[in-house]
Design goal:
By secondary structure, the chain is an alpha+beta fold. The chain is 16% helix and 31% strand. The chain contains 4 helices and 11 strands; from the N terminus they run αβββαββββββββαα. The protein has helices spanning 2-8, 38-41, 151-163, 167-171, and strands at residues 11-14, 19-26, 31-36, 44-46, 61-65, 77-82, 92-94, 97-99, 110-114, 120-123, 128-136. The strands form 3 sheets. The protein has a 4-stranded antiparallel sheet, with no helix packed on it. A hairpin with a 4-residue loop joins strand 2 and strand 3. The longest helix is centred in the last third of the chain and has 13 residues, at 151-163. It starts with a helix and ends in an 8-residue tail after the last helix.
Length: 179
């Protein structure tokens, strides 16, 4: 159930049109140039190398999906934007970020890094590009310790053994709803 919850949490933004990206080398500027197909030109833009100086992916091409939709959440809620969980490895990666979508009521752009060896990239229409998971912001304190098993822990272990493979689902899991 934890994997099911991860896969089905929140919302998916699929790509609304196929996009073809060509990456070349601009000898005059000694940098990479990015050309988008006609369908993709309206949805994508780039980042200059100065915008991500000293980042772990410095020197790679960073594109930006210019999401046309505004995402607004109730007060106190933010959204985690990430590549969909358990997606096959692609020659690009959408960068994960959190936006306070209760305060920032504008379309959120999604930066993406492209593998340095990639020169041509086609992303098909309908490709699940971004997973959005809303969550309530809340301050709390964590405590980490190593303890001996308690009676409660031993009771949980016993209940888990009694229910077998579906123990977590039957005893603890709660259905999530994103309406």
């Amino acid at each position: 159930m934890p994997v099911f919850d991860a896969i089905s949490s929140g919302y998916i933004i699929p790509l609304s049109a196929e996009v073809h990206i060509s990456i070349g080398h601009d000898n005059e500027l000694d940098s990479k140039t990015v050309i988008y197909s006609k369908e993709g030109a309206a949805m994508w833009s780039g980042h200059t190398f100065d915008q991500y100086k000293a980042a772990p992916f410095e020197g790679r091409v960073v594109c930006k999906f210019d999401n046309p939709w505004t995402i607004q959440t109730p007060p106190g809620y933010s959204c985690l934007f990430t590549r969909p969980f358990f997606q096959e490895k692609e020659p690009f990666e959408v960068l994960t970020g959190i936006v306070d979508t209760d305060n920032y009521v504008n379309p959120v752009a999604f930066p993406m890094i492209i593998d340095s060896s990639t020169t041509e990239l086609t992303i098909p229409k309908g490709f699940p590009l971004v997973q959005i998971i809303p969550f309530k912001r809340d301050s709390w304190s964590a405590t980490v310790s190593v303890d001996e098993p308690t009676e409660n822990k031993l009771g949980i272990d016993h209940e888990m053994q009694k229910f077998g493979i579906d123990a977590y689902k039957n005893l603890y899991w709660e259905k999530k709803s994103y309406e």
